[in-house]
Amino acid sequence: MTTENRPTPAGAPRAGTDESPSRPAAAAPRPHTGTDPGPSRPGIRAPGEEAPVRQPRARFLLTLLHLAALGVLGPVVFGAVAGLAGAGVGLIVVLGLGLVLLVGLVYVLFGVAWFEVARVESLYGLGAPPLAPQRRVRPGFAGFLLRIWHQAVDGRMWRSLVDFALASVMGMAVVWLFQRLVNSAVTAFAPLGSADTVPGPLGFGIPASQAPWVGALTVVVALAGIAGLVLLHRVVAVALIGAPVREVELTERARASAEQREGAVRAADVERTRIERDLHDGVQPRLVSVGMTLGLAQRKIDEDPQGAKELIGEAHTSAKAAITELRQLARGIHASVLDDRGLDAALSALAGRSHIPVHLDVRMGGRCGREAESAVYFAIAESLTNAAKHSRATGCRVTVRLRPDGTLWARVEDDGVGGARVLPGGGLDGIMHRIRGAQGTVRLDSPQGGPTALEVSVPCAS
């Protein structure tokens, strides 16, 4: 459905707020691109996604070329690494210069390991994620040293280095076997010459009459050796780089689960703080005022009935306002229409209560999960509240789609002054944690001068 709603006197549901610079600038809303941020983990394939397929012959030839190149470059790389390690150890007593070289050595080894993972992944498509540097877990210099230590003892990095070393050794063997193959091919035609004895494939002399079958046999052995090394390279690469992929995936899932749990806890804390603030700043003072007004009316009811009547009327008005605020607060905690009629109807009611015009474009072929719909609803509600309070927007566009992959996607864009930032405890902070708690993703784009666009994407299975 597509509707456009104008503001009504009723107040929008209150939620946490985030500040935007108050600049008297406004920009027209940018057209919706329909892009979904969805930052998946780099290098890890989604469930059901297949690895890129190479033809066996092409993969064989590529592996052979890789081994030949490593047979030439591998010794150079390890020579440079050995030289850097020797210089670092030798200069460790010279004003600590050796420590700088050893730190550099750690990251040189990381670079070699990263290259090896990328190389093997390009050949076999094992689904191995790119090797990433260790993150700093503590601030300051101690955190830097701890990060270097974790990088130096990273098991995945060392497995990749071992694979690189073994591939280099196999590459040197491939180069040697290729040389023997060429020599054997030349030896096989030795009887065409006049010499009685010719150099054999291994360097020793053999009779010219035996050269054809010796050369042919050596060619077959060399080809078999090259093919065996190519197959052995795959076995070793899968064992050292491909096997830990499952472990990495489980680690990523555990980390994502921890982030989801942290986001849910943080969202609940932000929501609790918001409710406490709204009760303390809004409903509570109004109810206290109602009580005081009724107390004054009780004292005046005998001597000044008219004045008491006016005080009772004032208390009645304040009580109705308190009921309205409680209703809005309850709606901010849970929108009953969301369960009864779905996200489409809930957003229509929300847009109708907005203080700024809202262009609503919702296209859903059915219902989504309750958690996903609730997360998207409150993200949109908070965005509209922020647009009305801080961005000086004159209009807002809300787009919601239920995508074929089972993802509920929404985009809220206003034509305000922009500059929105995520502040701890603020409305955008609550949006971030609520969406992460539902295993979703959030992207905020709010340059100075506007416009501000917020995109959320939540899996319906959440």
TrEMBL record:
Cellular component, GO annotation: membrane
Bias kind Low complexity: ranges: 22-31
Pfam families assigned: HisKA_3
GO MF terms held by the record: ATP binding; phosphorelay sensor kinase activity; protein dimerization activity
Chemical reaction(s) catalysed: ATP + protein L-histidine = ADP + protein N-phospho-L-histidine
Keyword field contains Acetylation: no
Protein name, per record: histidine kinase
Organism: Rothia santali
